[in-house]
Design goal:
Blueprint (H helix, E strand, L loop, with lengths): L1 H23 L1 H9 L2 H14 L2 H30 L4 H25 L5
Length: 116
């Protein structure tokens, strides 16, 4: 139980740190957020929990492929906001577009025999 609480604390601290740093400097907040900290933490927790390198490989490969559709969010959101569309509508549309991108990429990968 202590280990699970520690995982929550470390992960939460990083998320709070990004948002607090971004208040002072969007550049430094962006750098911290762009580092694949969540992926590194997830891979680390997975390995520590299972000691299974094949699971780490599978997770790493899945993350690699799914970074591509996640970029949809970061392309659409600022464009919509620059056009004056409200934050919540822009955020919602960006999330839906990203979900569609994930679904589409997974379908395409499956046609080529690549399963995530």
């Amino acid at each position: 139980m202590t280990y699970l609480v520690l995982k929550f604390l470390i992960t939460s601290i990083i998320i709070v740190a990004v948002s607090e740093i971004a208040k002072q400097s969007s550049f430094f907040g962006s750098i911290l957020a762009s580092i694949p900290l969540v992926s590194v933490l997830a891979i680390t927790w997975l390995y520590l929990d299972t000691k299974d390198v094949s699971r780490v490989i599978d997770l790493s490969n899945g993350i690699l492929w799914l970074v591509i559709p996640s970029l949809t969010f970061f392309i659409i959101l600022p464009v919509l906001l620059k056009y004056g569309i409200s934050f919540y509508i822009s955020l919602s549309f960006s999330i839906v577009a990203t979900i569609i991108s994930y679904y589409s990429l997974i379908k395409v990968l499956n046609k080529f025999g690549i399963e995530i």
